[in-house]
Amino acid sequence: MIEINLLPAGGGGARKPSARRSSGSVSLPRVGGEPRIAGLAAALVLGLLFAAYFTWTSGSQIAALNADVEREQGDSVRLEASIARLKTLDTRRDTIDRKIQVIRSVDGRRFVWPHLMDEVSRATPPYLWLTKLAVADDAGATPAAPPPPPRTAADSAKAKADSAAAVTAAGEGPSFNVEGNAGNTQSLTRFMRNLEGSPMIRDVALVTSEQTDVQGRSVLKFTLEARWEDPDPAFVQTLPLVSTR
């Protein structure tokens, strides 16, 4: 029988290429085989995830804060405009209040002198006649010009206080002098008592009195000083200007 050897010559050489192939191949390390490497890899992944999340949340917060800042700036501008309008309205209100107070003080004094002359006429007794009736001091007759508009709250309060003081002073009424002649002392005394009894006259005082001759008769020449007083509404009778009948 004939036998043929198909194996290459040198059987040991057949294993060398296998050895070379095994030495030239690349093999990756197994992660599960090294705990430290696995922990480092997990920490790296978690760090990357945390950094990404922090970046995303920070961006959202910054955007929200920017929106809030823009909204607050818009509100601040609107509030400044509203405050400016309120200050303008306050200034106008103070000016109008002062003008109204002046008008009221003037309007309230329109009938002072007609009432005053009527009261003096009623108080005049027999044997006494008047020669002069004149104002002595009427500080509220000519109201002062309104002051400039106040710039601050303190100026506004001071202006209101000054206006109130002016109105109070105007409400005291004018003082006036009465000159005349009396036939005797009793007539002068009665005249002064009648003036004091009027609800519109107060502070009646005798300034001067002297005996003098008028057309050959001896009379008592006198000068009185008194002040107007706002009467109690109970003593004031008002009538309509136009009859309703």
Notes on the structure:
It is a single chain. This protein has 245 residues and is α+β, with helices and mostly antiparallel strands. It folds into two domains: 35-107; 112-165 and 172-232, Alpha-Beta Plaits (2-Layer Sandwich), CATH 3.30.70. Helix content is 51%, strand content 18%. It contains five helices and four strands. The protein has helices at 16-24, 35-107, 112-123, 153-171, 185-197; strands at 128-137, 175-182, 201-214, 217-228. Strands 1-2-4-3 form a four-stranded antiparallel β-sheet. Helix 2 runs parallel beside helix 4 (153-171) and helix 3 (112-123) crosses helix 5. The longest helix has 73 residues, at 35-107.
The Rg value, from CA coordinates, equals 56 Å
Question: What form results from the Cα inertia axes?
Answer: rod-shaped
Q: Helix coverage percent of residues?
A: 40-55%
Percentage of residues in strands: 15-25%
- Using DSSP, what is the number of strands? 4
Q: Which structural category do the helix and sheet elements fall into?
A: alpha+beta
Strand order of the largest sheet: 1-2-4-3
